[in-house]
Amino acid sequence: MDTNVQKRRENKKSLRVKVISLGNAEVGKSCIIKRYCEKRFVPKYLATIGIDYGVTKVQVRDREIKVNIFDMAGHPFFYEVRNEFYKDSQGVILVYDVGLRESFDALDSWLAEMKQEMGSQANMESIVFVVCANKVDLTKRRVVDESEGRLWAESRGFHYFETSAQSGEGISEMFQAFFSAITDMCENGGKRPTPEVSVGFTKEQADTIRRIRNSKDSWDMLGVKPGATREEVNKAYRKLAVLLHPDKCVAPGSEDAFKAVNEVTQ
Ligand code: GTP
Ligand code: MG
């Protein structure tokens, strides 16, 4: 075959992508990447200083993918270094530690930081997100359960995996699904394909269930100011009842949330 034709075909099949890792300091971002790329685990904590950069090649179907991995430091101190690296990413690995609730709660602010830094470039529909509920090997200290993590991720159209960089659980499955979704997206004209199985509930429903679960008192549960009038409480209740009624809402945890709202308004 003509070598130029052959080269063109090969080029068509090869793909270069950029992925970044995000999440609080010490949740295990670098260890997840190390486990995948180097098949090893380092128990000692070595904080990433600014950014770690690495390249790896993976095969997805008939394509060779060259992956540029930018492993971000989670510490707030490195914000100035990190913010340069958000743009032009096709994939984001969002990591939290299942034993630290604040690292899970921080996922929203990581997304917000990313959106802010990308500015007008922020087209979240052209990025594949995978959420890693990490350190699942430490079962005794787990505080964020699978349903809560999965709900947060899937209600946003993100992939969800339970992982342990220590044991290796979920790591290769996560990366395989991640790279395959990025390849699908690139083949789909840069738009994230809608998941084959729709989750069947909305982000608003998922976020409301999460807020109710974590509410500190009845006012907080209803989403009203302390001392709100009966009328305001009734209004909030009606809105929640429509949103979470078990006949209308199939999100995991909706029944408990609906029950809890009914109890505080009685
Ligand atoms: P920054 O670079 O500071 O943002 O942290 P990071 O998110 O990259 O964390 P890193 O990968 O350095 O891991 C932090 C600590 O958690 C280290 O002591 C790791 O050995 C430990 N660790 C990471 N993943 C796991 C895991 O799955 N299980 C257990 N038991 N420990 C883990
Ligand atoms: Mg790190």
Which keywords apply here?
18% strand; alpha/beta; 6 strands; six-stranded mixed beta sheet; binds magnesium ion; binds guanosine-5'-triphosphate
Give the secondary structure arrangement, pairings included:
Blueprint (H helix, E strand, L loop, with lengths): L2 H11 E9 L6 H10 L12 E10 L2 E10 L6 H4 L8 E7 L3 H5 L1 H12 L9 E7 L11 H9 L4 E4 L8 H17 L15 H11 L4 H5 L7 H15 L9 H12 L1
Parallel strand pairs: 1-3, 1-4, 4-5, 5-6
Antiparallel strand pairs: 2-3
Bound molecules: guanosine-5'-triphosphate and magnesium ion.
Family: Belongs to the small GTPase superfamily. Rab family.
GO molecular function: GTP binding; GTPase activity
Subcellular location: Nucleus
Could you characterize what this model shows?
- There is one protein chain.
- With 266 residues, this protein is of the alpha/beta class.
- It is built from 11 helices and 6 strands.
- It has a 6-stranded mixed beta sheet, with helices on both faces.
- Helix 10 (230-244) packs antiparallel against helix 11 (254-265).
- The radius of gyration is 21 Å and the shape is globular.
- The model has no long low-confidence stretch (mean pLDDT 90).
- It binds guanosine-5'-triphosphate (GTP) and magnesium ion.
